[in-house]
Amino acid sequence: MAITFEQARKSLDFLELQQLEPTVVNYDLALTYVTRALPELSREIDTRTDGGVRLSRKEVDSLVGRFLSNSNSDLGAREKVIAQQTQQLGVLTSEAHLVTSGLERDVANVVTQAGEWPAASGEFVTRLSEAERELAELRFNLAKLQERVDGKDGDPPSNSRDVLTRSLDRDGSQDLLRRLTTDGRSYVIIMFGLDDIEEFNEKFGRSVGDNIINALAATLREHFQEQELVRWSGNQFITILKDTAIMQARVIAEEALLAMSQRRLRLRDTGEWVGVVTASAGIVVGQHELTTDVLERARANLLSASEAGGNQIKG
């Protein structure tokens, strides 16, 4: 099966959204789902994830066993195919990267020599730059996938991650926070928290509350794809942005809050909509100070935003 860049990106996005490790087997499941190669499998995943529900490990194992693993030898063969596919995609993205980089330089040289360029060229250059950025992002994602395939995963150990959301836990984030005080650069910390999560827990139960927390984590990952997400406490998460203006960080945070409020989360058993779920955020800039102080300010801004009605950002 020929794989397009878009299909590869969608497969990786699916794994991220479902908070599944990008192993060979999981990537195979994601690729089969997004390409609709097995319509029955895709329909079942659509049903199970309706309303933002995340697949459980047991469900993933069941789906793999029923649809993808006819035998151990077949599974081994599929692993080899996936490994080959990631290598081929890596080569293709590298070659495309060189082509777009060279073309961008050529266009710049032509513009410089000509002294002028048709007005439509601006759109062309913009699209070319976007293609270059997307290729670089895809190449990075594929490199991470290949590391997992080859068993050279450099991510933090699993015991430093939160069991529910697979985000870094507070202990696992300590090295990340320590580096903020040593490199001397300014940074932006955003702390997010769900509004009225206790009301959902009381009305629907703790398991539904956990699904809502997972939905927030997935939404944040969609908008902060290059940043590590940390589950700081309960329903509160932090993300750290370097070399980013606070106004730009605020715009991304506002987009994430809007996306969360627009999610339609439903109960798995009945399909009942749980209602509008919103989150708030506190944003601060830090540099040359204790990260504990910066985090306290971020938390204070978060609480202020939530107390002011929620679904907003303060700081």
Describe the protein's architecture and organization.
The chain is an alpha+beta fold and 315 residues long. Helix content is 60%, strand content 10%. The protein has 11 helices and 5 strands, in the order αααααααβααββαβαβ. A 5-stranded mixed β-sheet has the order 2-3-1-4-5. The longest helix has 43 residues, at 72-114.
Structural descriptors:
11 helices, alpha+beta, globular
Can I get a quick summary?
By secondary structure, the chain is α+β, with helices and mostly antiparallel strands. The protein has helices spanning 5-18, 24-35, 39-48, 57-68, 72-114, 121-150, 174-182, 197-204, 206-223, 246-261, 291-307, and strands spanning 187-194, 229-233, 236-242, 279-286, 313-314.
Q: What is the strand and helix layout of this fold?
A:
Elements: H1 5-18, H2 24-35, H3 39-48, H4 57-68, H5 72-114, H6 121-150, H7 174-182, E1 187-194, H8 197-204, H9 206-223, E2 229-233, E3 236-242, H10 246-261, E4 279-286, H11 291-307, E5 313-314
Parallel strand pairs: 4-5
Antiparallel strand pairs: 1-3, 1-4, 2-3
Helix pairs in contact: 1-2, 1-9, 2-4, 2-5, 5-6, 8-9, 9-10
Radius of gyration based on Cα positions: 22 Å
| Class derived from helix and strand content | alpha+beta
Q: Tell me, rounded to a whole number, the average pLDDT.
A: 78
Low-confidence stretches: 71-75, 150-154
State the helix count: 11
Number of strands: 5
Largest sheet: 5 strands, mixed
